[in-house]
Design a protein that fits this description.
Elements (H helix, E strand, L loop, with lengths): L10 E2 L8 E3 L6 E2 L2 E2 L4 E7 L2 E7 L1 H4 E3 L4 E4 L16 H4 L4 E4 L4 E4 L16
Antiparallel strand pairs: 1-2, 2-8, 3-4, 5-6, 7-8, 9-10
Amino acid sequence: MAFIVPTGISKVTSVAPFKDCFDAQNVAGKDMTGPNVPKIEFGLPGKTGEVTWGFYGANTVVKVSEMVMCLAFYDGGKNLNDWIVIGTHQLQEYLLEFDLSTSTFSFSDSLLLHYTNCSTSPS
């Protein structure tokens, strides 16, 4: 996965196990979806065409120190069996539905966009 550093954000030395890290002081605060960093979207095949799944700062970066934030994705190497692996950090504050009878998968917007989260959302 290639990471393009947004204007105004400086890359810094990697912090294991993360590859892409940057100066946390360049991030302009937080909003309801976490650190104010660019949204990352994945395009997934859907019944009526491509569906995008958006991830925000709370799910895309990890603050490893007061000075450093890292992109919360691992480099899986060159010989991957899977196209994409979405980990538990990315899945926080999303509702997921797996329908085994139709082999479909659906997901909500980030609950943070609705001023709630999984621990306070009604079941």
